[in-house]
Write a structure and sequence with these properties.
The protein contains twelve helices and no strands. By secondary structure, it is mainly alpha-helical. The chain has a single domain, classed as Hypothetical protein, domain 2 (Endonuclease III, domain 1), CATH 1.10.340.30. The longest helix is centred in the middle third of the chain and has 19 residues, at 83-101. It starts with a helix and ends with a helix.
Length: 224
């Protein structure tokens, strides 16, 4: 596990590498962000943004999503994985927003997680990005980076990773650290072919050091 000094070094280094890290899902308000994050499950932000570019022009309110047959909505988001389930969940959550929340996105994690298609990660993204509530949303990038750098154990669950990061990172840095972890994992410490050779955090990375040693051995085996 990392020391407080090492954690500070990691956070500062990521800050230098990605000072402008931010939510890459394009949206204009909390409702659009909620829809975009629901759509982003098991797909890329880039794919979601291609769809929402036209989707958000057609549907601007919860009522708009309920004014069409679910098949039409499915067709509008067909290029995204799990589109049938997501279309149904969007209509269900829109109905709840109308009936229970006066068409407004709720501002608590508990209320958000009661909406169809909204898990803890989605709720944390909405809280942090839309409402400025300190939160750490653990997606695949955050989980991978946290485990590679030794913030938590390899066997830890997603919830355990979140709780560990909340303990080790100052609360006022939760939201920006969440984005920087994502950028670090998405553009540098990738799942496949991470940029270990040029990584300023290599000395702290368990997997990175193993990769580099393996590469060195492979180089030595090559005929000169």
């Amino acid at each position: 596990m990392l020391t407080k000094k090492q954690i500070r070094f990691v956070l500062d280094t990521m800050g230098e590498m990605f000072p402008n890290a931010h939510c890459e899902l394009i949206h204009n308000n909390a409702f659009e962000l909620l829809i975009a994050v629901v759509l982003s499950a098991q797909t890329t932000d880039e794919s979601v943004n291609r769809v929402t570019r036209t989707l958000f022009k057609k549907y601007k309110t919860p009522d708009d999503y309920l004014a069409v047959d679910v098949k039409e909505l499915e067709n509008d988001i067909r290029s995204i994985g799990l589109y049938r389930t997501k279309a149904k969940n969007i209509q269900k959550l829109c109905r709840i927003l109308i009936e229970k929340y006066d068409r407004k996105v709720p501002r608590t994690r508990e209320e958000l997680m009661q909406l169809p298609g909204v898990g803890r990660k989605t709720a944390n993204v909405v809280l942090s990005v839309a409402f400025g509530v300190p939160a750490i949303a653990v997606d695949t990038h955050v989980e991978r980076v946290a485990k590679r750098l030794g913030f938590c154990r390899w066997k830890d669950s997603v919830l355990e990773v979140e709780k560990t990061l909340m303990k080790k990172i100052p609360e006022e840095e939760w939201s920006i650290s969440h984005h920087r972890f994502i950028f670090f994992g998405r553009y540098h410490c990738k799942a496949q072919n991470p940029n270990c050779g040029e990584c300023p955090l290599l000395t702290l990375c368990r997997e990175g050091k193993k990769r580099m040693k393996k590469m060195e051995k492979e180089q030595l085996r090559k005929p000169k």
